[in-house]
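Same chain as my last thread, 214 residues:
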Amino acid sequence: MSSNIIFISTLIILWYSSNIGVLLLNKLLLSNYGFKFPIFLTMCHMSACAILSYVSIVFLKIVPLQKIKSRGQFLRIGCLSVVFCGSVVGGNISLRYLPVSFNQAVGATTPFFTAMFAYLMTWKREAWVTYGALVPVVTGVVIASGGEPSFHLFGFIMCISATAARAFKSVLQGILLSSEGEKLNSMNLLLYMSPIAIAVLLPAALVMEPDVLT
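reply #2:
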């Protein structure tokens, strides 16, 4: 029991550390060092995910390889991948204009958007206590937005859009991959989502960020 708690605690710490590390590195690249290609940066991110997930599954065999069983399942994974791309690109763009602390404050509204999308798409209602707990969170973000000295409207819109896209992906993932016969574990899902994301982001980067090649 104690070893299981230690293992789960370690995973949580690694998850928080990696998220904070990626966020700070993205901020350094996009803001401090003037790297102006958030779409290309997201494509590099997804390329790394594709390579590492492939190595972890095929060579290290951390989890067994699961195959896509139908065209419908592939289309659902593709839909998730596009939404995920939108959330990451929006988050990276917002980091060019907003400080990390404010970016994370806005990200705290994710549960609000998740509850909203869950109700709109599945008619799933949470307890009133849950909705009540979201009120001070949203209120706090509104107050913080009004008093943020580095507030940037476009950056704020992109940050809110990225937050909503992350919540939408969570709900969509629960709906589209709920079939017992087509469930994928998180690593296999990433393995299949990453190449699709690269295929979407590469032409977008070439069209919208042509200077990345110079």
